[in-house]
Amino acid sequence: MSSFRIAIVQHPSTENVSENLNFALQSIREAKEKNADLVLFPECFLTSYQCPEALRCLPPMETIYSLPAFRHWYQSALTPDSPEVRVVCDAAKTYGIGVVITAFSRGNRRPQNTAWVIGRNGEILLTYHKVHTCDFDWERYLESGDGFFVCDFEGVKLGVMICYDREYPESARELMLQGAELIVVPNDCDNMRPRLRELSVRSMENMVGIAMANPPGKDAGSSCAFVPMAWDQPDNAIAVAPEFFDGLLYADFDLDAIRAFRAAEDLGKERKVNAYRHLLGERKC
Questions:
Q1: Domain containing 40 — which CATH number?
Q2: How high is the pLDDT of residue 3?
Q3: Which segments of the chain have a pLDDT < 70?
Q4: pLDDT by residue (tens digit) across 163-190?
Q5: Range of 198's domain?
Q6: I want to staple 216 with a disulfide (CB 3.0 to 4.6 A). Which of 144, 221, 227, 236 is the partner?
Q7: Cβ(219)–Cβ(192) under 8 Å?
Q8: Phi, psi torsion values for 39, nearest 5 degrees
């Protein structure tokens, strides 16, 4: 595959899972009509990125398991076998398109913030749970993921970060060390201007393409895509949506150009890992 088109969904989800699912199916059909290879949804799209009101006052962790609202939230979280996820898998197979669908999923004792990468044949290629949960707020009640992973999407090495993962350089670097060529970022937050600069740098320093999907809103939206080829160019963005745009943004990645850039450039190739004394587990790739 020499080129790769991602349909980036910029649309708000609601508390109604059926409504979210219907919009997801509509987006998958539209993306296929526009010859996209993959559809990327914002963070927790199927379930919506919301927690019970009882958790917003940040009660002690040991008390949440007795709260009816928490128990309902946990039981409502999805699994790979949930009908909503299976319907998306079936749509991916029907239309022959990849999908990155997101939701709160059911962890061991608490929900997890999850993205499933689905292949064109409807099979789940990768399950990723958000590692850097926002523990300064209600996301402390989620179970964090324990690693970053890359899957093979028809010869394209694809990795996932979710929202706050973006603010830790180690997230993208860990994916790059595993060979990621494209990183997709389901997102749901505002104050996007500095975060676009973060993603621009993550793309350049790791020699990867990056696509991010974010719901619309004031100082939000701004779904985007970046390529690493930033030398002699004013900007390495290949697509950025307006804040209030509601719909699908398309980003075309030239994989041949990205691979040639990776072969020619030395970013990350001459890393002096012995000097990174405080980065536990660092190894030279």
A1: 3.60.110.10
A2: 93
A3: 280-285
A4: 999 999 999 999 999 999 999 999 999 9
A5: 3-275
A6: 221
A7: yes
A8: -110, 130
